Amino acid sequence: MFALVHLSGDPVLLMVPADASPELVADTRRALGFDRPLREQFGRYLANVAQGDLGTSLRINRPVARLIRERLPATVELTLAALLLATVTAIPAGIVSAVKRGTIVDRLAMIGAVAGQAVPIFWLALLLITLFGVRLRWLPVFGHGTWAHLVLPAVSLSTIVLGRLARLVRSSMLEVLGQDYVRTARAKGLGELRVLSVHALRNAAIPIVTLLGLQFAQLLGGAVVTETIFAWPGVGRLVVEAIFNRDFPLVQGVVLVVSLIFVVVSLLIDIAYALLDPRVRDRMA
Predict the structure, then answer these.
(1) Model confidence at 258, in pLDDT bands (50, 70, 90)?
(2) 204: closest CA among 94, 93, 105?
(3) What's the average model confidence in pLDDT over 248-260?
(4) Which of these, 22, 27, 48, 272, could form a disulfide with 53 (CB 3.0-4.6 Å)?
(5) How far apart are CA 31 and CA 61, in angstroms?
(6) What does each C-alpha distance from 194 to 198, 201, 212, 230 come to in angstroms?
(7) Alpha-carbon distance 121 to 27, whole Å?
């Protein structure tokens, strides 16, 4: 990322007037440390990061860590809302589709899942704004503050996960519904809801948990389009503004924080495996 942002151009040229003298450009570059070799700049950046210093924003002139700390909660809120909406919709749809395999219910559910994956987020977001914000005037179309502001961006963002999760739940459930322990549970006279939720879904949960965890991390760093369209004050919108302004420290700081979150979420997924599947615990032991 350090190399890529430096390939995008000289940020100093955006910070000085268009008619600035070469002396002013050179002085500004020297004051910001951009006159030093890239190798030296990178070494200094790593040394600062090791001490918890992500640098200072070139445009806003505020610490990058503080900017991320202010914007990250809004992105986490949007991501969790979208993930929750996708989960409560996709898991029942996937289970019903697996139980009703080959029926019209199964076909309709899978058509909806594929459509959810195929629809571009920006197009769906504009449709939601036009219908619920402009014509019906039920919901606000931009900003942040109340639950009403959260509805439209969460719905548009959830479609990324919803279709993929519904298809995965269906395929995972189909694998376990034919297993001996499911037939044994039914033979014992257990109710169908208990068989599906306790015996089938729990054993099919590992790929589902994997997808949910990875999608959370990806949505956290990939909600750029949604945050931009709905003017949501999150890190996605922050990094877009930083890229346009060639704000190198801010871009690097956001990417670093989101990457660390991705690593932590991956670790939590591995721990969840052991909690869900006794066989994993046995192998770990």
Answers:
(1) confident
(2) 94
(3) 88
(4) 48
(5) 13
(6) 6, 10, 23, 41
(7) 44
DSSP for residue 63: B
Residue 159, both tokens: 């479609």
Beta bridge partners of 63: 56
- Answer whether 79's CB lies under 8 Å from 155's CB: no
Distance CA 268, CA 115 (A): 31
**Which tens digits make up the pLDDT trace of 17-61?**
777 777 887 887 787 777 788 888 888 888 988 888 888 888 888
63 Cβ partners below 8 Å, 6+ apart?
A: 53, 54, 55, 56, 57
Angle, nearest 10°, between helix axes 147-177 and 205-222? 150
Q: Which two tokens stand for residue 144?
A: 């942040």
| Burial (CB count <10 Å: 0-12, 13-18, 19+), residue 41 | middle
Per-residue model confidence as pLDDT tens digits over 102-147 = 888 888 888 888 887 788 888 888 888 898 888 888 888 887 878 8
* Selection from 207, 121, 198, 220 nearest residue 166 by Cα: 207
What pLDDT score does 136 carry? 83
